[in-house]
Amino acid sequence: MRVLPKATGLGGISSRRGPNQSVKPTKQSLPQVTKQTVLTKYRPFLSSTMKNRSTKIPIPSIETPNKSVFTTQAYAKQLTFFIESTSGPDFSVGDIVRVVFFAKDQRNNAVTTNIGDYFRASISTLETKSAAVGAITDHQNGTYTATFRLLWAGKVKIKVQLVLPRQAIDVVERTVGEHPFDKVMFRRQYRLDGRTISTRCSVDPTVFHNTGPVCNHSDPHAGGRWYCEKAANISCETPGYHSYILGSGPKNMLRPGEEKLFARRINPWRLDISGSPSTINVTKGLDPLAKRRRCMPGLATPQINGFYQDGVWNSLVCHNRHFSNQSEWRECLRGKTVHFMGDSTIRQWYEYLVGTLNLTDVTLPEATHQSGPSLAKDPVDNITLKYRTHGPPIRTSSTKTSNLKYIANALDEIEGGPNDVVGITVGAHLTAFPVQLYRERMEAIRVAIRRLHQRSPQTLVAIKTANTFTSGSEVNGGDWLAYRFDLVMRELFAGMDVVLVDAWGMTSAQQWHADVIHPGSDIIGQEVELLGSFICPL
Question: What is the set of domains in the chain, with CATH numbers?
Answer without folding.
Answer: 1-30+185-248 (no CATH), 62-171+258-283 (2.60.40.10), 324-535 (3.40.50.1110)
